[in-house]
Amino acid sequence: MAELNPFKIAQQQLDEAAKYLGLDAATHEFLRWPMREYRFTLPVKMDNGQTKVFTAYRVQYNNARGPTKGGLRWHPDETVDTVRALAAWMTWKCAVVDIPLGGGKGGVTCNPKEMTETEKERLARAYIRAVNSELGVHRDVPAPDVYTTPQIMAWMMDEFETIRGESHPGVITGKPIAIGGSQGRGDATARGGVYCVREAAKKLGLDAATSSYAIQGFGNAGQFAATLHREILGGGRLIAVSDSRGGVCSRDGMDPAAIVRHKLETGSVQNFPNTQPISNEDLLEIDVDVLYPAALEGVITEKNAGNIKAKLICELANGPTTPAADQILHENGNLVLPDFLANAGGVTVSYFEQVQNTYNYYWSLADVHAQLDRRMTEAFDAVYKTREQAAVHMRLAAYLVAVTRVAEACKLRGWV
Ligand code: NAD
Asked: Is 70 exceeded by the pLDDT of residue 163?
């Protein structure tokens, strides 16, 4: 499985759900493929005066439930298949949290770490010039993803509005607040995951306020999870954290805000006072109540799944658990909150941003949190109920909920 490309994995996950649901052949085949995909060749002037040619993509996977929605990745390893897979997962993610949007994704094969701000701005504007006729609040709405930022979203919105000669703030989300971004977007992914942990703890009879937790990956998702776990659950002991350079642990617990400061000041979690070093591999197997994988894909495999002690695994990262590991965790009684449920808080607040842009009326932070809490709690309940009824693992249960909703929309439209 590991050597398969991500789109093949996404198709196989769908196949399993389709089989379980007894989906008819036409609906199944329709949902295995993107409805539309675009490939662009973008010539961009670099600061040295030379032109560099970039390959870019936009995949609109399925719009049966509403306009397609999904981030833009700028990454050297971007291929059409990574974009297709992520677009498929966006389709299931929007459906599982029941927001009226389809799934899409975009990407540019590039290395932003080697580009200046002015080069990034020219690439952002070139991308919008190529794709603008396919975008819009009623068609397809991009957002930030790996290596794209609120500033890049601002340039893109400006280019779109310049082409159209009109205001269109809802054409893209994840914008800075000063130009139509939403309150609460920054920590939305981790916040949505912690709301799911709170609900799952109730089901497991776990005392959330005294729960111990560990976090692999200490970027946007991981850092917010560190502080929000305690804030939302009313307590908790942070036992271990790691980043790409390695991890630290302390059985007595660490102050989440202090280790976030340490990471921001030193660039790493290493050498945080009163801790011992721990490897990224050992962190996954540490004895804690809740484990948050918040870094990379494919870290929980059939090799280490049997050693994982956490009762709850909240997948803030995309794809941290392989299909074989899922089955082992299920059999051993570890409850997995699967990625497209656990990290759906980000797209949910992006949807709120789109709604606010359309009404030209902006919500308070408290309103955003209350609405996000409701959506995540309902999504968790729907998936958990399906897991109980169908006696399947949580990821398959999430697929069953999402695919049922998308298939119903396709049928109602008369497509299949
Ligand atoms: P980020 O780039 O801000 O942080 C990633 C972190 O992972 C960094 O601390 C990095 O040091 C660490 N890391 C990298 N390699 C590692 C390794 N080998 N072992 C341990 N740690 C390692 O990224 P992010 O936005 O926090 O995203 C993390 C994951 O969450 C990704 O899978 C992403 O797709 C997913 N996600 C993020 C969001 C969001 O809104 N930020 C939304 C949905 C999903």
From this structure: yes
Q: Which of 220, 241, 279 to mutate to test the pocket of ligand 1 (most atoms within 8 A of CB)?
A: 220
247 CA to middle of ligand 1, Å?
14
Q: For position 374, what pLDDT does the model report?
A: 98
Query: Does 120 participate in catalysis according to the annotation?
Result: no
Give the SS3 label for residue 186.
Answer: coil
* Per-residue pLDDT at 4: 59
User: Which CATH number fits the domain 35-175+346-358+391-416, given the four candidates 3.40.50.10860, 1.20.120.1730, 1.10.1060.10, 3.30.70.20?
Assistant: 3.40.50.10860
Distance from Cα 296 to the centre of ligand 1, integer Å: 6
- Separation between Cα atoms, residue 32 and residue 293, nearest integer Å: 28
Residue of 63, 62, 57 whose CA lies nearest to 81: 57
Report CA(406)–ligand 1 centroid distance (Å). 28
Evaluate if residue 261 carries a pLDDT over 90. yes
Catalytic residue chosen out of the listed positions 45, 52, 93, 105: 105
The yes-or-no answer to whether 35-175+346-358+391-416 and 188-342 have a common fold is yes
What SS3 class is residue 2? coil
Q: Residues 217, 293: contact at Cβ < 8 Å?
A: yes
This model's pTM is above 0.70 = yes
Residue 2 has pLDDT above 70, yes or no: no
> pLDDT tens digits for 330-384?
999 999 999 999 999 999 999 999 999 999 999 999 999 999 999 999 999 999 9
Query: In the predicted model, what is the mean pLDDT of residues 59-82?
Result: 96
188-342: CATH, from 3.30.390.30, 3.30.70.2570, 1.20.210.10, 3.40.50.720? 3.40.50.720
Helix axis angle for 80-96 and 365-390, nearest 10°, is: 90
Mutate to test the pocket of ligand 1, among 313, 343, 347 (most ligand atoms within 8 A of CB): 343
Ligand 1 pocket (Cβ < 6 Å) reads 189, 216-222, 242-244, 280, 294-296, 316-318, 343, 346
Report which of 312, 330, 351, 305 is spatially closest to residue 396, judged by C-alpha positions. 330
